[in-house]
Amino acid sequence: MASHLLVTTIAAEFIRGGCVVEIGSSREIERKEKSSTHFFKKTCELLDSMFFSVDISEKSHALAQTIVGNQAVCTDGETFLKNFRHLTRRRISVLYLDNFDVIYNDQHEKDLRSRVGEEYGKWGWELENSKSAEVHLSQMKAAIPLMAQRSVVICDDTMTKNDGWWGKGATVVPYLLAQGWRVHSASDIGVMLTSPRMKHPETPSWFSRRRRYVWGLAGPSLPSFEWPTG
Ligand SMILES: C[S@@+](CC[C@H](N)C(=O)[O-])C[C@H]1O[C@@H](n2cnc3c(N)ncnc32)[C@H](O)[C@@H]1O
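^ Those are the sequences you sent over. The predicted structure of the assembly is below.
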């Protein structure tokens, strides 16, 4: 399962009326319809949520613009998050961290360097896994004060290896765990954590059940919510 789809394992009501932030937009035109950018755009339309898709690369940004229009932002993730308050007073309900590439093996490194090495070079960044983990952690630290009380963080290309965490979220996951966040679910290439206040995300609380009832009068009830495919 693509890691952005992990969000479909929580109740959709946690996203309704909130804000989804994706750091790392779709960059492959052939996969546009299957991309996380496309999926979150559709989800946010259905759930009346805001969506921002952020990318440092002008190329990825241009593609994201064709999907989300002016909610595609061309800057680095940390700068975006530090300026987030100027954009909206909403809090972030879903943070999807899928940006600075990690290298899986020698062949992957060769491929990445020829495809996107130059993009990183423009920022004076060297493609290294430790740098990826550092960049994602800086973004997470900038995002913490902006997160909704009940929220989720998804780290793509993140998994356990040799009793530790490996990948884009190698330092984000331990950082969040130390703050009381919990691993909620994982796919083969990503992991989703829930905020400390989100005790039983799959079983709505009394409060959210009541809100669901109210929404049920006004529109489709959330249990029948159909997540977009992608
Ligand atoms: C793997 S792609 C994202 C794929 C997309 N989420 C999807 O599933 O279709 C990673 C993207 O992150 C961008 N990126 C790398 N470092 C970044 C940073 N510090 N801030 C924002 N974007 C960054 C790259 O330019 C690239 O477009």
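Confidence is low (pLDDT under 50) at residues 201-221. The domain at 3-224 is CATH 3.40.50.150 (Rossmann fold).

Shout if you want it in another format.
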